[in-house]
Amino acid sequence: MMTLSQKLAALMYRPYIDTDRHDPAVFANLPQIVGYPIPEEYMDFLRDFPSTGMFDVEGDVIVKGVEQLPGNHDGRYAVSMLFAACSDERYDLMEIARRPLYGGDTPRYVLQIGDNEFGNAFCLDLRRESFGKVYYWDHESGADETGLYLVADDFTSFVRGLDSK
């Protein structure tokens, strides 16, 4: 079976900013910032890929979700970027984690871990009862569960489910 590193390499995953080189120690206090424990498999990913990354061609990487958006949607979600440390604060995981809750934001119990070119996010659920599940968040929804759609039961399944169009 392919490792997560091999899977991401096969999909041409690379740092968003070529010159970014971050120390994984920057994530040591992430649980304190978000107020929840962080799944170990996601922390392992941050140790292996400490810089925000993207796939070479935006929109060409998708993941098939467990749930699909209402209407004429096939349950496939485009993935452009996975967040870690980044010199561009818009894509820096620690900055994203520190953002206050505001109208149109994701629910506070999820951590945004990636996005697509349409402004939607991929989120880790940090609540005890659904710890580690990965959701797609439709940015046109409010800061409640109505905009969350289950993509994978955990981060490893999410990465393993990534594929090119």
TrEMBL record:
Classification via SUPFAM superfamilies: SMI1/KNR4-like (SSF160631)
Domain Knr4/Smi1-like per the UniProt entry, residue ranges: 30-160
Xref: Pfam families: SMI1_KNR4
Protein's recorded name: SMI1/KNR4 family protein
